[in-house]
Amino acid sequence: MNTIRMQNPIAEMDGDEMTRVLWQMIKDQLLTPFVELNTEYYDLGLQNRDATDDAVTVEAAAAVKRLHVGVKCATITPNTKRMEEYHLKRMYRSPNGTIRDILDGTTFRAPILVSGIEPAVKSWKKPITIARHSSADQYSAAEYRVPGPGTAELSFTGEDGQVWKKEICRFTGSGVLQGIYNRDESIRNFARACFAYALTTGQDLWFSAKDTICKAYDGTFRDIMAETYEENRAAFDKAGLHYFYTLIDDAVARAMRSEGGFVWALKNYDGDVMSDMVSSAFGSLAMMTSVLCTPDGNFEYEAAHGTITRHYYRYLQGEQPSSNPVATIFAWAGALGKRGELDGNTALTGFAERLKNAALDTIRGGVMTGDLAALRGGDEKGVSSADYLAAVRARLE
Fold it and tell me: Whole-model pTM?
Protein backbone atom coordinates (compact mmCIF):
# COMPACT_ATOMS: atom_id res chain seq x y z
CA MET A 1 0.00 0.00 0.00
CA ASN A 2 1.41 3.38 -1.00
CA THR A 3 1.41 5.86 1.88
CA ILE A 4 0.97 9.60 1.57
CA ARG A 5 4.00 11.74 2.43
CA MET A 6 3.81 14.89 4.56
CA GLN A 7 6.22 17.69 3.63
CA ASN A 8 6.00 19.53 6.95
CA PRO A 9 5.23 18.31 10.47
CA ILE A 10 2.34 19.09 12.79
CA ALA A 11 2.53 19.44 16.57
CA GLU A 12 1.11 16.28 18.16
CA MET A 13 -0.04 16.61 21.78
CA ASP A 14 -0.83 13.34 23.54
CA GLY A 15 -3.21 13.24 26.50
CA ASP A 16 -4.68 11.21 29.33
CA GLU A 17 -6.71 8.14 30.23
CA MET A 18 -9.12 6.57 27.72
CA THR A 19 -8.58 9.26 25.11
CA ARG A 20 -4.84 8.51 25.22
CA VAL A 21 -5.68 4.86 24.49
CA LEU A 22 -7.97 5.87 21.62
CA TRP A 23 -5.28 8.26 20.33
CA GLN A 24 -2.82 5.41 19.81
CA MET A 25 -5.51 3.11 18.37
CA ILE A 26 -6.48 5.76 15.80
CA LYS A 27 -2.86 6.26 14.78
CA ASP A 28 -2.25 2.52 14.47
CA GLN A 29 -5.52 1.64 12.70
CA LEU A 30 -6.43 4.69 10.62
CA LEU A 31 -3.37 6.89 10.09
CA THR A 32 0.01 5.17 9.82
CA PRO A 33 -1.19 2.52 7.32
CA PHE A 34 -2.12 5.34 4.93
CA VAL A 35 0.07 8.34 5.82
CA GLU A 36 3.76 8.73 6.63
CA LEU A 37 2.98 10.73 9.76
CA ASN A 38 5.33 13.66 10.31
CA THR A 39 4.76 15.07 13.79
CA GLU A 40 6.61 16.75 16.63
CA TYR A 41 5.45 14.77 19.64
CA TYR A 42 4.64 16.37 23.01
CA ASP A 43 3.41 14.23 25.88
CA LEU A 44 0.82 16.29 27.76
CA GLY A 45 -0.16 13.34 29.93
CA LEU A 46 -0.51 14.43 33.54
CA GLN A 47 2.56 12.52 34.74
CA ASN A 48 4.80 14.18 32.14
CA ARG A 49 3.37 17.61 32.86
CA ASP A 50 4.23 17.00 36.50
CA ALA A 51 7.73 15.73 35.65
CA THR A 52 8.45 18.85 33.55
CA ASP A 53 6.73 21.31 35.91
CA ASP A 54 4.29 21.90 33.02
CA ALA A 55 7.05 23.23 30.75
CA VAL A 56 6.01 20.66 28.12
CA THR A 57 2.65 22.44 27.71
CA VAL A 58 4.38 25.74 26.94
CA GLU A 59 6.71 23.96 24.51
CA ALA A 60 3.73 22.39 22.74
CA ALA A 61 2.01 25.76 22.32
CA ALA A 62 5.22 27.23 20.92
CA ALA A 63 5.39 24.33 18.45
CA VAL A 64 1.87 25.11 17.18
CA LYS A 65 2.92 28.72 16.61
CA ARG A 66 6.05 27.61 14.76
CA LEU A 67 4.47 24.81 12.69
CA HIS A 68 1.06 26.55 12.30
CA VAL A 69 -0.86 23.28 12.81
CA GLY A 70 -1.39 21.16 15.92
CA VAL A 71 -3.62 18.30 17.05
CA LYS A 72 -4.34 17.67 20.72
CA CYS A 73 -5.69 14.74 22.73
CA ALA A 74 -7.97 15.38 25.71
CA THR A 75 -6.10 16.05 28.97
CA ILE A 76 -6.81 16.10 32.71
CA THR A 77 -7.09 19.38 34.58
CA PRO A 78 -6.22 18.22 38.10
CA ASN A 79 -8.27 18.90 41.22
CA THR A 80 -7.50 17.82 44.78
CA LYS A 81 -8.58 14.24 44.09
CA ARG A 82 -6.37 14.03 41.01
CA MET A 83 -3.40 15.46 42.93
CA GLU A 84 -3.67 12.58 45.38
CA GLU A 85 -4.32 9.95 42.68
CA TYR A 86 -1.32 10.99 40.55
CA HIS A 87 0.91 12.18 43.44
CA LEU A 88 1.38 15.58 41.80
CA LYS A 89 3.76 18.26 43.00
CA ARG A 90 1.10 20.94 42.57
CA MET A 91 -2.35 21.55 41.13
CA TYR A 92 -1.53 22.48 37.54
CA ARG A 93 -3.79 24.75 35.58
CA SER A 94 -5.73 23.59 32.52
CA PRO A 95 -3.33 22.76 29.67
CA ASN A 96 -5.98 24.02 27.26
CA GLY A 97 -6.02 27.33 29.14
CA THR A 98 -2.23 27.62 28.91
CA ILE A 99 -2.17 26.81 25.19
CA ARG A 100 -5.07 29.14 24.38
CA ASP A 101 -3.51 32.03 26.29
CA ILE A 102 -0.25 31.61 24.36
CA LEU A 103 -1.96 31.25 20.98
CA ASP A 104 -4.72 33.82 21.74
CA GLY A 105 -7.35 32.68 19.29
CA THR A 106 -11.00 31.78 18.84
CA THR A 107 -12.28 28.23 19.21
CA PHE A 108 -14.98 27.19 16.75
CA ARG A 109 -17.01 24.12 17.73
CA ALA A 110 -19.66 22.59 15.50
CA PRO A 111 -21.71 19.40 15.90
CA ILE A 112 -20.94 16.44 13.65
CA LEU A 113 -24.26 15.52 12.11
CA VAL A 114 -25.12 12.05 10.82
CA SER A 115 -28.42 10.67 9.58
CA GLY A 116 -30.34 8.64 12.11
CA ILE A 117 -29.09 10.66 15.10
CA GLU A 118 -31.77 13.26 15.79
CA PRO A 119 -31.20 16.33 18.01
CA ALA A 120 -32.81 16.27 21.44
CA VAL A 121 -34.14 19.77 20.72
CA LYS A 122 -36.81 18.98 18.15
CA SER A 123 -36.81 22.43 16.56
CA TRP A 124 -33.12 22.23 15.61
CA LYS A 125 -32.80 21.48 11.91
CA LYS A 126 -29.35 23.00 11.25
CA PRO A 127 -26.08 22.92 13.21
CA ILE A 128 -25.23 25.62 15.75
CA THR A 129 -21.55 26.61 15.75
CA ILE A 130 -20.10 27.89 19.02
CA ALA A 131 -17.42 30.58 18.61
CA ARG A 132 -15.61 30.69 21.94
CA HIS A 133 -13.19 33.47 22.84
CA SER A 134 -10.29 31.36 24.05
CA SER A 135 -8.21 33.72 26.10
CA ALA A 136 -8.16 34.87 29.74
CA ASP A 137 -11.40 35.29 31.78
CA GLN A 138 -11.69 32.67 34.56
CA TYR A 139 -9.08 30.46 32.87
CA SER A 140 -6.29 32.94 33.70
CA ALA A 141 -7.76 34.20 36.95
CA ALA A 142 -5.87 35.15 40.09
CA GLU A 143 -7.56 33.48 43.06
CA TYR A 144 -7.20 33.73 46.81
CA ARG A 145 -8.81 31.84 49.67
CA VAL A 146 -9.52 34.57 52.20
CA PRO A 147 -8.56 33.23 55.65
CA GLY A 148 -10.47 35.71 57.78
CA PRO A 149 -11.69 39.30 58.26
CA GLY A 150 -10.15 41.96 56.04
CA THR A 151 -10.71 44.24 53.05
CA ALA A 152 -10.36 43.17 49.41
CA GLU A 153 -9.56 45.84 46.83
CA LEU A 154 -9.21 45.95 43.06
CA SER A 155 -6.33 48.18 42.02
CA PHE A 156 -4.54 49.27 38.84
CA THR A 157 -1.23 51.11 38.62
CA GLY A 158 -0.58 52.85 35.32
CA GLU A 159 2.87 53.26 33.81
CA ASP A 160 2.62 56.96 34.71
CA GLY A 161 2.31 56.01 38.36
CA GLN A 162 -1.38 56.83 38.67
CA VAL A 163 -3.21 54.40 40.95
CA TRP A 164 -6.89 53.45 40.74
CA LYS A 165 -8.52 51.50 43.55
CA LYS A 166 -11.97 50.23 44.37
CA GLU A 167 -13.12 48.29 47.38
CA ILE A 168 -14.60 44.91 46.49
CA CYS A 169 -15.62 43.50 49.83
CA ARG A 170 -15.06 43.88 53.55
CA PHE A 171 -14.81 40.31 54.75
CA THR A 172 -16.12 39.64 58.24
CA GLY A 173 -14.93 36.06 58.02
CA SER A 174 -13.33 33.63 55.57
CA GLY A 175 -14.31 33.61 51.90
CA VAL A 176 -12.90 33.48 48.39
CA LEU A 177 -11.59 36.10 45.97
CA GLN A 178 -11.04 36.02 42.20
CA GLY A 179 -9.69 38.53 39.69
CA ILE A 180 -10.14 38.12 35.93
CA TYR A 181 -9.05 40.22 32.97
CA ASN A 182 -9.12 40.58 29.20
CA ARG A 183 -7.44 42.77 26.60
CA ASP A 184 -9.05 44.92 23.91
CA GLU A 185 -6.68 43.52 21.28
CA SER A 186 -7.67 39.94 22.08
CA ILE A 187 -11.38 40.79 22.10
CA ARG A 188 -11.03 42.58 18.76
CA ASN A 189 -9.25 39.57 17.24
CA PHE A 190 -12.10 37.41 18.53
CA ALA A 191 -14.70 39.70 16.97
CA ARG A 192 -12.95 39.76 13.59
CA ALA A 193 -12.62 35.96 13.59
CA CYS A 194 -16.33 35.56 14.34
CA PHE A 195 -17.48 37.87 11.55
CA ALA A 196 -15.04 36.29 9.07
CA TYR A 197 -16.24 32.79 9.97
CA ALA A 198 -19.90 33.79 9.65
CA LEU A 199 -19.26 35.30 6.21
CA THR A 200 -17.27 32.27 5.07
CA THR A 201 -19.96 29.81 6.18
CA GLY A 202 -22.95 32.00 5.22
CA GLN A 203 -24.50 31.97 8.69
CA ASP A 204 -26.02 34.66 10.91
CA LEU A 205 -23.92 35.71 13.90
CA TRP A 206 -25.18 36.06 17.46
CA PHE A 207 -23.26 37.44 20.40
CA SER A 208 -24.48 37.27 23.98
CA ALA A 209 -23.09 38.32 27.35
CA LYS A 210 -24.42 39.98 30.52
CA ASP A 211 -23.56 43.67 30.21
CA THR A 212 -26.44 44.63 32.50
CA ILE A 213 -24.44 43.08 35.37
CA CYS A 214 -20.82 43.33 34.19
CA LYS A 215 -21.18 46.80 32.72
CA ALA A 216 -17.49 47.46 32.00
CA TYR A 217 -16.28 43.90 31.36
CA ASP A 218 -19.09 42.48 29.23
CA GLY A 219 -19.89 45.96 27.96
CA THR A 220 -16.43 46.12 26.38
CA PHE A 221 -17.10 42.86 24.53
CA ARG A 222 -20.48 44.20 23.38
CA ASP A 223 -19.00 47.49 22.13
CA ILE A 224 -16.08 45.92 20.25
CA MET A 225 -18.42 43.40 18.61
CA ALA A 226 -20.68 46.30 17.56
CA GLU A 227 -17.71 48.22 16.12
CA THR A 228 -16.58 45.16 14.20
CA TYR A 229 -20.08 44.69 12.83
CA GLU A 230 -19.97 48.22 11.40
CA GLU A 231 -16.72 47.26 9.64
CA ASN A 232 -18.50 44.23 8.16
CA ARG A 233 -22.01 45.63 7.70
CA ALA A 234 -21.76 46.03 3.91
CA ALA A 235 -20.47 42.48 3.47
CA PHE A 236 -23.17 41.11 5.79
CA ASP A 237 -25.90 43.01 3.93
CA LYS A 238 -24.62 41.78 0.58
CA ALA A 239 -24.63 38.18 1.85
CA GLY A 240 -28.09 38.56 3.38
CA LEU A 241 -26.75 37.82 6.86
CA HIS A 242 -27.70 39.31 10.21
CA TYR A 243 -25.88 40.13 13.43
CA PHE A 244 -27.48 40.88 16.74
CA TYR A 245 -26.57 41.12 20.39
CA THR A 246 -28.76 40.03 23.25
CA LEU A 247 -28.32 39.08 26.90
CA ILE A 248 -27.08 35.54 27.36
CA ASP A 249 -30.20 34.35 29.20
CA ASP A 250 -32.36 35.66 26.36
CA ALA A 251 -30.01 34.06 23.81
CA VAL A 252 -30.36 30.67 25.51
CA ALA A 253 -34.16 30.91 25.32
CA ARG A 254 -34.01 31.99 21.66
CA ALA A 255 -31.57 29.21 20.78
CA MET A 256 -33.85 26.55 22.24
CA ARG A 257 -36.73 27.81 20.07
CA SER A 258 -34.68 28.32 16.91
CA GLU A 259 -34.04 25.93 14.03
CA GLY A 260 -30.27 26.45 14.41
CA GLY A 261 -28.04 27.38 11.52
CA PHE A 262 -26.11 30.26 13.13
CA VAL A 263 -22.77 31.07 14.75
CA TRP A 264 -23.08 31.82 18.46
CA ALA A 265 -20.17 33.94 19.72
CA LEU A 266 -19.49 33.70 23.45
CA LYS A 267 -16.93 34.67 26.04
CA ASN A 268 -14.49 32.02 27.23
CA TYR A 269 -16.43 30.48 30.14
CA ASP A 270 -19.82 30.84 28.44
CA GLY A 271 -18.49 29.15 25.33
CA ASP A 272 -17.08 26.29 27.38
CA VAL A 273 -20.49 25.62 28.93
CA MET A 274 -22.66 26.16 25.86
CA SER A 275 -20.51 24.02 23.55
CA ASP A 276 -21.14 21.02 25.81
CA MET A 277 -24.86 21.78 25.86
CA VAL A 278 -25.03 22.10 22.06
CA SER A 279 -22.95 18.98 21.36
CA SER A 280 -24.93 16.88 23.84
CA ALA A 281 -28.26 18.09 22.49
CA PHE A 282 -27.18 17.29 18.92
CA GLY A 283 -26.27 13.76 19.95
CA SER A 284 -23.06 13.30 21.91
CA LEU A 285 -20.12 15.17 23.43
CA ALA A 286 -18.00 12.97 21.18
CA MET A 287 -19.74 14.30 18.06
CA MET A 288 -18.36 17.83 17.89
CA THR A 289 -15.42 19.36 16.04
CA SER A 290 -13.16 21.88 17.76
CA VAL A 291 -10.50 24.08 16.18
CA LEU A 292 -8.63 27.02 17.66
CA CYS A 293 -7.87 29.66 15.01
CA THR A 294 -5.46 32.54 15.65
CA PRO A 295 -5.07 35.92 13.91
CA ASP A 296 -1.55 35.00 12.77
CA GLY A 297 -2.66 31.84 10.96
CA ASN A 298 -2.26 28.99 13.45
CA PHE A 299 -4.71 26.12 13.93
CA GLU A 300 -5.05 23.66 16.80
CA TYR A 301 -7.53 20.79 16.45
CA GLU A 302 -8.88 18.75 19.37
CA ALA A 303 -11.81 16.74 20.62
CA ALA A 304 -14.22 18.89 22.63
CA HIS A 305 -14.79 16.27 25.35
CA GLY A 306 -12.81 15.02 28.34
CA THR A 307 -10.62 12.00 29.02
CA ILE A 308 -13.50 9.49 29.52
CA THR A 309 -12.27 8.50 32.99
CA ARG A 310 -15.01 5.98 33.78
CA HIS A 311 -14.25 3.99 30.62
CA TYR A 312 -10.52 4.13 31.35
CA TYR A 313 -10.94 2.44 34.72
CA ARG A 314 -12.92 -0.32 33.01
CA TYR A 315 -10.21 -0.60 30.35
CA LEU A 316 -7.61 -1.11 33.08
CA GLN A 317 -9.72 -4.02 34.35
CA GLY A 318 -9.39 -5.72 30.96
CA GLU A 319 -12.71 -4.60 29.40
CA GLN A 320 -13.10 -3.16 25.89
CA PRO A 321 -15.20 -0.02 26.48
CA SER A 322 -17.51 1.46 23.88
CA SER A 323 -15.92 4.93 23.87
CA ASN A 324 -16.82 7.12 20.92
CA PRO A 325 -13.63 8.17 19.02
CA VAL A 326 -15.32 10.26 16.31
CA ALA A 327 -14.33 13.69 17.67
CA THR A 328 -10.71 12.56 17.97
CA ILE A 329 -10.80 11.13 14.43
CA PHE A 330 -12.13 14.47 13.19
CA ALA A 331 -9.40 16.31 15.12
CA TRP A 332 -6.72 14.32 13.30
CA ALA A 333 -8.55 14.73 10.00
CA GLY A 334 -8.81 18.49 10.55
CA ALA A 335 -5.11 18.84 11.32
CA LEU A 336 -4.00 16.67 8.40
CA GLY A 337 -6.38 18.47 6.07
CA LYS A 338 -5.09 21.89 7.16
CA ARG A 339 -1.48 20.72 6.81
CA GLY A 340 -2.25 19.52 3.32
CA GLU A 341 -3.99 22.81 2.49
CA LEU A 342 -1.07 24.93 3.71
CA ASP A 343 1.49 22.73 1.91
CA GLY A 344 -0.48 22.27 -1.31
CA ASN A 345 -0.59 18.53 -0.65
CA THR A 346 -3.83 17.45 -2.32
CA ALA A 347 -3.24 13.78 -1.49
CA LEU A 348 -3.20 14.63 2.21
CA THR A 349 -6.32 16.83 2.07
CA GLY A 350 -8.08 14.12 0.09
CA PHE A 351 -7.21 11.51 2.70
CA ALA A 352 -8.51 13.76 5.49
CA GLU A 353 -11.88 13.97 3.75
CA ARG A 354 -11.98 10.22 3.15
CA LEU A 355 -11.21 9.61 6.82
CA LYS A 356 -14.14 11.77 7.96
CA ASN A 357 -16.48 10.18 5.43
CA ALA A 358 -15.43 6.68 6.47
CA ALA A 359 -16.14 7.48 10.13
CA LEU A 360 -19.63 8.76 9.32
CA ASP A 361 -20.44 6.09 6.71
CA THR A 362 -19.61 3.44 9.30
CA ILE A 363 -22.24 4.92 11.61
CA ARG A 364 -24.74 5.22 8.77
CA GLY A 365 -24.07 1.57 8.05
CA GLY A 366 -25.20 0.63 11.55
CA VAL A 367 -21.84 0.22 13.31
CA MET A 368 -21.51 2.69 16.20
CA THR A 369 -20.50 3.01 19.83
CA GLY A 370 -22.95 2.72 22.70
CA ASP A 371 -23.64 6.45 23.15
CA LEU A 372 -25.02 6.71 19.60
CA ALA A 373 -26.78 3.32 19.68
CA ALA A 374 -28.71 4.46 22.75
CA LEU A 375 -29.95 7.51 20.83
CA ARG A 376 -31.21 5.31 18.00
CA GLY A 377 -33.45 3.44 20.42
CA GLY A 378 -34.74 -0.09 19.99
CA ASP A 379 -32.61 -3.13 20.70
CA GLU A 380 -29.56 -1.80 18.91
CA LYS A 381 -26.35 -2.13 20.95
CA GLY A 382 -23.09 -0.33 20.47
CA VAL A 383 -19.83 -2.01 19.54
CA SER A 384 -16.51 -1.53 21.31
CA SER A 385 -14.17 1.28 20.29
CA ALA A 386 -11.82 -1.31 18.76
CA ASP A 387 -14.59 -2.86 16.66
CA TYR A 388 -15.79 0.53 15.47
CA LEU A 389 -12.27 1.56 14.43
CA ALA A 390 -11.81 -1.76 12.63
CA ALA A 391 -14.99 -1.06 10.64
CA VAL A 392 -13.72 2.42 9.73
CA ARG A 393 -10.41 0.88 8.66
CA ALA A 394 -12.24 -1.57 6.41
CA ARG A 395 -14.03 1.32 4.68
CA LEU A 396 -10.76 3.21 4.19
CA GLU A 397 -9.22 0.15 2.56
Answer: 0.88
